[in-house]
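Hi U.,

Before I forget, here's the chain from the pilot set. I'm dumping it here mostly so it's searchable later in email.
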Amino acid sequence: MEIAKITSKGQITIPIAIRKSLGVREGDKVLFIERDGGVLMINSSLAALRQAQEEFAGEAERAGLSDEADVAAMLSQFRRERYDANHG
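Structure:
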């Protein structure tokens, strides 16, 4: 358990152990989520990545992609189509 004091401007210093645990450093952003009478502090970059993963879950299968070779083939086709459209 870590404790931080709130300044007159409502600022706190996040204890180093918590910063390391969250993987945050100077300039990073954190997300505050109110839950069950308390507040969770989350690394906002990781939260955004998790949300994107959840939203894209199953899309590879729906697109018929089963491995890296399928993804590479799809990208090659996309690049070929873009090239043809721009230089056609």
